[in-house]
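User: Design a sequence. Structure:
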């Protein structure tokens, strides 16, 4: 399999093209053969695998290697493959500001971008950074450093059609901890809390992410326990 220095990447996300996590993702592949960024104009989190087929949307170039799409994460991958397919070997989505664990994979625009790549026959990785603001502030430099060897490991593996990866980085309380262990694990299928509060005639979701159900050895359990969860996903 190609090394990082021989690989051309498409970078995208659901937090928007100016997100700190997207810059950290770019830092994690420094020295790659090529990097093209095609990302949403602004925040498009939690949209799942929605695509835009019922209206025109704007696509503009910031530079030769940076394209802004006024649409959804899966749209970004579709546009990139339409216009730049010959420049792309792998698709990387993230680094998402927040975890995409367990059943989040169905709601996440980040994971949807990786899944869209897999649908079109390209290997892909979705990367997210679980963050508990009560523990420590985000450290994107650390996230990028932790991610780089993980990417090198995944790139060295076979990449059969229809397979993509979901990586979740943890949020340890220490400012400068050693790199956490990378643990390959299954996706937790426990449902999210059905918790809402009623106010002014409406409902607002009140579930606590940290208090979600988790099963032993699953991605939720691994990441909440301080490890880096690595899950292999396949198209149905």
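Assistant: Done.
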């Amino acid at each position: 399999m190609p090394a990082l220095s021989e690989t051309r990447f498409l970078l995208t996300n659901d937090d928007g093209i100016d997100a700190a996590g997207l810059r950290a993702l770019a830092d994690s592949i420094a020295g790659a053969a090529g990097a093209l960024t095609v990302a949403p104009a602004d925040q498009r989190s939690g949209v799942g695998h929605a695509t835009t087929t019922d209206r025109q949307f704007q696509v503009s170039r910031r530079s030769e290697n940076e394209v802004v799409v006024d649409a959804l994460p899966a749209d970004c991958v579709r546009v990139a493959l339409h216009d730049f397919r010959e420049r792309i070997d792998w698709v990387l989505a993230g680094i998402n500001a927040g975890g995409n664990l367990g059943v989040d994979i169905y709601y996440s625009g980040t994971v949807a971008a990786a899944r869209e790549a897999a649908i079109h026959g390209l290997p892909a990785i979705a990367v997210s950074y679980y963050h508990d603001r009560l523990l420590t502030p985000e450290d994107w430099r650390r996230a990028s450093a932790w991610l780089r060897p993980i990417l090198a490991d995944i790139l060295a593996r076979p990449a059969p059609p229809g397979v993509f990866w979901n990586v979740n980085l943890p949020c340890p309380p220490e400012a400068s901890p050693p790199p956490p262990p990378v643990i390959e694990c299954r996706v937790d299928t426990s449902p999210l809390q059905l918790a809402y509060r009623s106010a002014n005639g409406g409902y607002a979701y009140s579930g606590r992410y940290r208090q979600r159900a988790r099963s032993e050895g699953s991605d939720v359990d691994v990441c909440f326990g301080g490890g880096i969860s690595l899950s292999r996903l396949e198209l149905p």
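The chain has six helices and eleven strands. Residues 4-234 form a domain with the Stationary-phase Survival Protein Sure Homolog; Chain: A, fold (CATH 3.40.1210.10).
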